[in-house]
Design a protein that fits this description.
Length: 366
């Protein structure tokens, strides 16, 4: 599988939903496979909150592969021997695209909290500009899970005709109070950590030492990514062998898991980027700018394929079924499918239980 990593700089203004302007801005992206002559084999993959453009394969010297390596590659569900796959890093992130730690033009110092609030719609609009620059005006499919699914749905509504197929997994049409509440815990933990310094922390020091508030917030996030069943299976009531049962801060294995993932998180994902992307997820609502969800969904001309997971406790299956039911109600049911995958893993099933839904993806793409 051929992997290419690039970055494009745009000097034209990106007009944001908030009314503000982002200018200039950069987008990092990665491609897999070979573009055919008529550019008809393009698949766009959209990443979730803490993902990046590195969706598959392995960089030299890295132990871990890209975040959806089980899905993307030669002979895999998104077959790079047939398709040319593009994954971009969303604006607001910290993996190469313009975000709050990027240098602000023309003063050449980081935006930090002066970065404008962005939305999922803004992320998609920026990506669409990238594809136009690459000479790609139409794609075979747009695929994404969680926040990636939100982007896929925005592609369907904001750029009808751009994709033949839209595949959205483990997502929703508007972020629920339940999901916003989880994000609120993370946001407040970051904001109220003295080491956050109102966003003026030393960027290099953050990567070395992390941020306790960000770590604690991430622990709460991980709880929402799993399910009671997956935690029971993964950890049970096992106790860390080196910790004494009657030591006050002795840990169960599930606590060690949260410690590890929580305290490592701010060393590789910038807290400011987390705040901005969490805000984008919180205010995400497909019906904004339309007279309700029905009017928004009427704009879809692509075939829409929705996949939920039975034990998802972040974006519940009924939220995706509501989209499918609404498509049927407005007379668009013939172009929409909905599948609820029998899984007890939780929200992250779309990342780790590929074998349970790969045949759905393969059938849709075929």
């Amino acid at each position: 599988m051929e992997i290419t990593t690039n970055k494009e700089k745009f000097t034209n203004a990106l007009y944001l939903e908030s009314g503000r302007i982002l200018e200039p801005y950069e987008i990092a992206y990665e491609t897999y496979g070979t573009l055919n002559e008529d550019k008809s084999n393009v698949i766009v993959v959209c990443h979730a909150l803490t993902g990046s453009h590195h969706a598959a394969g392995r960089y030299d010297g890295d132990r871990k592969t890209g975040w959806w390596d089980d899905m993307i590659g030669d002979g895999k569900p998104i077959d790079t021997s047939r398709y040319f796959v593009i994954c971009t890093n969303v604006i607001g992130s910290c993996f190469g695209s313009t975000g709050p730690t990027s240098l602000m033009y023309p003063v050449s110092r980081p935006y930090r909290l002066k970065f404008p609030v962005i939305t999922v719609k803004d992320m998609v609009r920026a990506q669409r500009s990238l594809f136009s620059r690459l000479g790609i005006e139409h794609v075979h499919a747009v695929i994404g899970g969680s926040m990636g699914g939100m982007q896929a749905l925005h592609f369907a509504i904001d750029f009808p005709g751009f994709a033949d197929k839209i595949i959205a997994l483990a997502t929703t049409h508007a972020t629920s109070p339940w999901a916003i509440a989880f994000n609120k815990v993370s946001i407040e933990a970051i904001r109220n950590d003295p080491a956050f310094e109102d966003g003026n922390y030393d960027l290099d020091k953050m990567k070395e030492q992390g941020l306790t508030g960000s770590a604690i917030g991430r622990m709460g996030g991980h709880i929402s990514f799993l399910s009671p069943h997956s935690m029971e299976r993964k950890f049970g009531r096992d106790y860390v062998a080196q910790d004494g049962l009657f030591e006050l801060f002795g840990r169960f294995e599930v606590e060690r898991y949260l410690d590890y993932n929580g305290y490592n998180f701010p060393k590789w994902f910038d807290p400011l980027s987390f705040l901005y992307i969490a805000k984008a997820i919180n205010i995400y609502d497909l019906s904004r700018g339309h007279d309700g969800l029905e009017e928004a969904l009427k704009k879809i001309t692509a075939d829409l394929h929705l996949i939920s997971f039975e034990s998802d406790m972040l974006f519940f299956p009924w939220e995706m079924k509501h989209i499918a039911d609404t498509m049927t109600r407005i007379g668009q049911g013939a172009r929409c499918t909905y599948d609820n995958i029998d899984s007890d893993y939780g929200h992250d099933a779309f990342l780790v239980e590929v074998d349970k839904f790969r045949h759905h993806i393969e059938a849709v793409l075929a």
